[in-house]
Known about the structure:
Four copies of one chain form a homotetramer. By secondary structure, chain A is of the alpha+beta class. The first copy, chain A, has a single domain (14-148), classed as Thiol Ester Dehydrase, Chain A (Roll), CATH 3.10.129.10. Chain A has helices at 37-52, 57-64, 135-150; strands spanning 9-10, 16-21, 66-77, 86-96, 100-109, 112-125. In chain A, strands 1, 2, 3, 4, 5 and 6 form a six-stranded antiparallel sheet that branches. The longest helix of chain A is centred in the N-terminal third of the chain and has 16 residues, at 37-52.
Amino acid sequence: MSDAAASPQVLSGAAHRFPIRVYYEDTDAGGIVYYANYLKFAERARTEMMREAGAPHSDMVNRFRCSFAVRHCEVDYFRPARLDDLLDVETRILELGGATVDAEQLVMRDGTELARIRVRLACITETGRAVRVPAEIRAAFNEYHKSQERA
Amino acid sequence: MSDAAASPQVLSGAAHRFPIRVYYEDTDAGGIVYYANYLKFAERARTEMMREAGAPHSDMVNRFRCSFAVRHCEVDYFRPARLDDLLDVETRILELGGATVDAEQLVMRDGTELARIRVRLACITETGRAVRVPAEIRAAFNEYHKSQERA
Amino acid sequence: MSDAAASPQVLSGAAHRFPIRVYYEDTDAGGIVYYANYLKFAERARTEMMREAGAPHSDMVNRFRCSFAVRHCEVDYFRPARLDDLLDVETRILELGGATVDAEQLVMRDGTELARIRVRLACITETGRAVRVPAEIRAAFNEYHKSQERA
Amino acid sequence: MSDAAASPQVLSGAAHRFPIRVYYEDTDAGGIVYYANYLKFAERARTEMMREAGAPHSDMVNRFRCSFAVRHCEVDYFRPARLDDLLDVETRILELGGATVDAEQLVMRDGTELARIRVRLACITETGRAVRVPAEIRAAFNEYHKSQERA
């Protein structure tokens, strides 16, 4: 195996899009979506992107005995989302490292960016030890991104 | 073993009291505590009652390979709790059955009842099978209730 | 206005169905969906049923200055839902009273009932006072149920 | 008024400490605290720091018609918190700007840092417009930090 996989790959292409409706559970007494809940939206979107890419996390757990854990995240809040809003979460993988994945996620409403999230995921074993992203998962991500670019 | 343990015991006595502060995370766009979150408050209070009774759930899991699962719950909502309220959750075990525990929990604010919750907990194994409440846990509950009555 | 509306109407018919995917945020350390979160699922499903019936809650708030508040709920937990499950929430309005709506909601997975929820909603003003369900909302519910029966 | 208040003040001193117990509601199927929930812990701790400093947010809302909104947050996750852990959230105000407050919050367990959170809060009016932090609130923060340093 050549070690192309060892140097980080910068992926770009169309984003994965996932719609999210805002319900009462997501809001707070300020009348807007509670700040922590954007991270829930982001995780739902990442999960669906992986499922669509053919690499659902059940596969990672059952076949490869590993999973992605969030190591770092950052959120910029530009405008508040509100009850009943229909949001779109756009997810882009920015970089596929040996044992990490960097992604950017935009929470959009009618073309306006409400929040921007950056996450670094680390591939870890069941005991929490960092490991390389399984080759098959890596290939699935690459394949998915190529198909997104063609789309 | 005499089968006193087999017939349900009706316990009465002073309630366990647990204070809970309402934060933004607990409220919704209606300006009040979101209806599902009373169940979170109730579970926190039950956990602390068990810890105080000397039967923390880590003991149940580690020593007896069982835990309590909620089989049924009911909530009556009388008055809404609001941001920054300091609530008191009063927990009373109503009945200690062979494999179940029935409890009543009142969510109070300054002596006013805001919500009343009834839960039926079932003792289950790690695989979800119903089992008898371990004798030691049962004894801890009884001891605790006697001490509450004396208090 | 004849007072048909004043006596409760028992509605029956096909249920409203709403799919819900289980994400990490919904689960707990027991590996299953946290017991309070079924109430979130139920509220999402009720919201979508109302939207589909042509009576979204934004209408109630903006046009009629009222909204539905949960007065009572009961949950029976039969089998746990797990990470990644695709659930279906079936919502049926059981009774349309003057100022209340009684609904039953089943949380299903592949035709198996995991949990059953009963809620009583009360129509309240912005200050929390109970009021009659607006005639237009009532009509929307009735219309919706007729269309469901035909379906 | 001299414009000392206009240039950002760098505050340092002992941190505010707030204990948090981990309950089932905080955990996920991975057996650890769900990543978004650290932001809930952080917000609880900030609220209590403000209350202790004599500047509870009810004061801000009722007397000054403003509140703090999170504009940016970052979280580094070092080690997972687990069910039943007793955590300590240490909150330090790093900088008191004209209309913003920068804070750092450490989530600790027995002296070990589990997560580090940085937040930038902006003072906003009820309509979401940025405004200067009210002088009284600013004074309360400064007073509090002086008292912390003496402690």
